[in-house]
């Protein structure tokens, strides 16, 4: 049961008897005192550990991929944009790897998209070398530059709020959130969908029992695709997600590395959902972009040399712990760990 102080702190009620699930998620994550605005969520001591935090090899593989594509397909001044840089670990690994081709960063206008003040402080500290002249921070993407762009993100699109729909005998219902004042807690209810616009949209999924969608995620990605179509460039996304029909909803909450209810620890825990990559691919195609890659994280890392990189690291230094490197790689590519759950999508206009 939640205390009144915690509930009021995140200001979720907004004088409504019930409200849509995505509005609840948006407020819990991004509202006043929301999770992503005031917490340090990333790291072994916090709620979750991302791939760059697991192993430097992850960022090095991404770095080689970006450098190669810039050299072969752009080779001019460009925008290098990371969405949700976390602790700055991925950028730091890419920067170190890119030294194999100094012109890469000499031609890069670097922008980090970050809304979390605490994480930005960490990024500024960790990326001090670049802070003086190269990096600009922003809370939101803007598309004023006409330069080609390389945009990349790891575990960024999973945080967009979702809406959940249930199909019961061809009648669609949507999940809403309601507050029980007597028990002082939130719970979910199902409301029948009456909006003709939403019903027309859901008609495409009438053979499914459930459907989960993030309209804000799709809109954000569509903006990226339109920009790439107009100005050339490449976007690489790595996130946990799916490209098949759902058997169950994917919304989850993580608090201190453990799954919890989304109605617990409001404003103090991560809430995320799996990315529907089919929708992102369709958006890219609608914008006439190429689908360069759509593979599992395992296949992407293997294809671009993570095992070879591990061997090279062990050859270069006898002080490295082979068992530790083996564990890092296994966690990233094992099909029962992150290997299949995480997908990699690369779209481009190059």
Descriptive key words:
single chain; about 350 residues; alpha/beta; Rossmann fold
Set out the fold topology.
Elements: H1 4-9, E1 18-20, H2 21-30, H3 35-38, H4 51-54, H5 56-73, E2 78-83, H6 89-97, H7 103-106, E3 108-113, H8 117-126, H9 128-131, E4 135-138, E5 149-154, E6 163-168, E7 171-180, E8 185-192, H10 196-202, E9 210-213, H11 215-231, E10 233-242, E11 252-255, E12 258-260, E13 270-272, E14 275-276, H12 277-286, E15 290-296, H13 297-303, H14 306-316, H15 322-333, E16 342-349
Parallel strand pairs: 2-3, 2-5, 3-4, 5-10, 10-14
Antiparallel strand pairs: 1-7, 6-7, 6-9, 7-8, 10-16, 11-12, 11-13, 15-16
Helix pairs in contact: 5-6, 11-12, 14-15
Question: Quick one: how many beta strands?
Answer: 16
> Regions with pLDDT < 50 over 5+ consecutive residues?
1-11
| Averaged pLDDT | 89
CATH class membership of one domain: Alpha Beta
* Strand residue content: 25-35%
Helices and strands: which structural class?
alpha/beta
Counting DSSP H or I runs of 4 or more residues, the number of helices is 15
- At the fold tier of CATH, the topology name of one domain is Rossmann fold
Q: Which outline best applies?
A: globular
State the helical fraction. 25-40%
- Report, as a whole number of angstroms, the end-to-end distance: 53 Å
**Cα radius of gyration in angstroms:** 21 Å
């Amino acid at each position: 049961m939640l205390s009144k102080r915690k509930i009021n702190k995140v200001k979720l009620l907004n004088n409504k008897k019930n409200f849509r699930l995505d509005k609840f998620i948006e407020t819990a994550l991004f509202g006043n005192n929301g999770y992503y605005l005031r917490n340090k969520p990333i790291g072994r001591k916090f709620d979750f550990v991302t791939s760059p935090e697991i192993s430097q090899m992850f960022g090095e593989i991404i770095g080689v991929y970006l450098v190669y594509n810039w050299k072969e397909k752009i080779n001019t001044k460009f925008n290098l944009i990371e969405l949700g840089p976390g602790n700055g670990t991925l950028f730091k690994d890419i920067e170190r790897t890119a030294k194999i081709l100094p012109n890469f960063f000499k031609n890069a206008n670097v922008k980090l998209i970050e809304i979390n003040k605490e994480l930005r402080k960490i990024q500024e500290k960790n990326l001090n070398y670049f802070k003086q002249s190269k990096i600009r921070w922003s809370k939101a993407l803007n598309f004023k530059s006409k330069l080609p762009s390389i945009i990349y993100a790891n575990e960024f699109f999973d945080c967009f709020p979702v809406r959940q729909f249930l199909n019961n005998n061809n009648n669609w219902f949507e999940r809403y959130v309601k507050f029980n004042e007597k028990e002082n807690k939130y719970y979910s209810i199902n409301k029948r969908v009456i909006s003709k616009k939403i019903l027309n949209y859901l008609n495409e999924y009438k053979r499914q029992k459930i459907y989960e969608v993030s309209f804000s995620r799709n809109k954000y990605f569509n903006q990226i695709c339109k920009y790439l179509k107009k100005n050339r460039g490449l976007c690489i996304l790595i996130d946990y997600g799916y490209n098949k029909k759902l058997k169950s909803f994917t919304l989850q909450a993580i608090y201190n590395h453990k799954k919890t209810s989304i109605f617990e620890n409001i404003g103090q825990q991560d809430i995320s959902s799996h990315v529907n990559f089919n929708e992102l691919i369709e958006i890219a195609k609608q914008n006439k972009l190429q689908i360069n890659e759509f593979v599992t994280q395992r296949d992407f890392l293997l294809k671009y040399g993570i095992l070879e990189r591990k061997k090279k690291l062990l050859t270069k230094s006898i002080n490295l712990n082979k068992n530790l490197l083996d564990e890092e790689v296994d966690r990233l590519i094992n099909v029962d760990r992150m290997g299949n759950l995480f997908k990699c999508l690369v779209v481009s206009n190059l």
